[in-house]
TrEMBL record:
InterPro entries: PAS (IPR000014). This is PAS domain-containing protein. Transmembrane segments: none annotated. Residues 153-220, 267-335 form the PAS domain.
Length: 373
């Protein structure tokens, strides 16, 4: 009779406690994402995981070498429920010889099917007991991961030279592709933070509106089109004309292709803002920080990104009273420019006529200041 190593969690409470072991995100060199997963091996004695994922998160299909990390780090990117399921899978294999298939990576409310994993017990020569786990796709399902990977470069080719906002979510709910326009519009710092992850688990990075739309399309197996505001993670909103197309390509592979553009068309208005000859600034009215400045303003006021990120405008360009006057003018919807002293960062102070406009589409209104000659 095979004994279960003492280091393996013995109860559901123990499993949950082990699954919740967290490592600060900044200290995680890597972690299991389930995207393109070929197999993983749980070494119970060493409390570590060895796994292999193909390059399903990249267009060049780069194949990674074997990766290894302590159990808590390796499972750190997964949801608590998926951690518990994997630990239960491993425990079942060690005790019974095999376990599964158990679904992991499903949606938060289980409306999206997850990836079924199987596990088998294996004992090596030195007496250590391993659990070898791998996806169980089924005899007639083909390999949906490879199909999704093949779509990525095709999509990239068609949208690379445009500002279109494009995202591909597969039938399991995993984000397989996101265009540069999508990454920029939804304020995602790094594409790796969402690629290969279930869209239900990255709501804090892309906002709840697109998550709800994609999950609803997958659940109903129906397409949706329209025009609406998308709530972003920071609380801002983005108005888009969108099309969420549900599709299926044989077997079990399908998904949702989300494509959208600015309501005003595909024009990149950030470029228009940047080439405008008049110095223009956008200020967060809550923090008084300059969140945007066009090239003309950067040059006229001798601004730098470091100064913009480090100090509010009331400690750099404007006296607090001048700022208050401009904000009040904007709140009154006045079109009359106000004459205030602007302290450029080269040491020169000059009176300038600034027109103030309040952009109140968001939870935190933004104040736009445009210099008039």
């Amino acid at each position: 009779m095979q004994l279960v190593p003492n280091s393996l969690p013995q109860t559901e409470a123990d499993e949950e406690e082990a699954a919740e072991v967290a490592v600060p995100q900044s200290k995680r060199p890597h972690g299991l994402t389930l995207a393109g997963l070929q197999f993983f091996i749980a070494d119970i004695n060493r409390k570590s995981l060895i796994w292999h994922e193909i390059g399903s998160q990249s267009f060049d299909s780069e194949v990674r070498d074997l990766q290894e990390a302590p159990l808590s780090e390796a499972l750190g990117l997964l949801t608590p429920e998926d951690k518990r399921t994997i630990l239960r899978l491993v425990q079942g294999a060690i005790r019974e010889g095999s376990a599964g298939p158990f679904d992991v990576g499903g949606g938060a409310d289980h409306r999206i099917p997850g990836i079924p994993l199987m596990a088998y017990r294996y004992q090596v020569a030195d007496g250590r007991v391993l659990a070898i786990c791998f996806p169980s796709i089924g005899e007639s399902d083909g390999n949906p991961g490879h199909i999704a990977l093949g779509l990525a470069p095709i999509l990239q080719h068609f949208v690379a030279s445009t500002n279109r906002i494009v995202c591909l979510v597969d039938n399991f709910g995993y984000v397989r592709y996101a265009s540069e326009g999508f990454i920029r519009a939804f304020g995602v710092g790094d594409a790796k933070l969402i690629l290969g992850r279930n869209i239900a688990h990255v709501q804090k990075r892309v906002g709840r509106t697109i998550v709800s739309l994609c999950l609803a399309s997958l659940t109903r197996r129906a397409s949706a089109t329209g025009r609406g505001k998308f709530l972003l993670p920071a609380g801002d909103t983005l108005e888009l004309s969108y099309n969420a197309m549900h599709f299926r390509i044989g077997g079990s592979f399908g998904g949702v292709l989300f494509s959208a553009g600015q309501v005003g068309g595909d024009m990149d208005f950030a470029k228009v803002f940047n080439v405008a000859s008049a110095p223009m600034l956008v200020i967060n009215t809550q923090t008084r920080m300059i969140i945007a400045a066009n090239q003309s303003a950067m040059k006229a006021y001798h601004l730098s990104q470091e100064v913009m990120d480090g100090k509010p405008i009331t400690e750099t360009l404007l006296h607090p009273k001048s700022y208050a006057t401009l904000l009040q003018t904007a709140q009154q919807n006045s079109d009359v420019p106000q004459s205030v002293v602007v302290n450029a960062l080269n040491g020169q102070s000059k009176k300038k006529r600034l027109k103030a406009v309040l952009l109140d589409d968001d939870k935190v209104p933004k104040l736009m200041l445009e210099a008039r000659s």
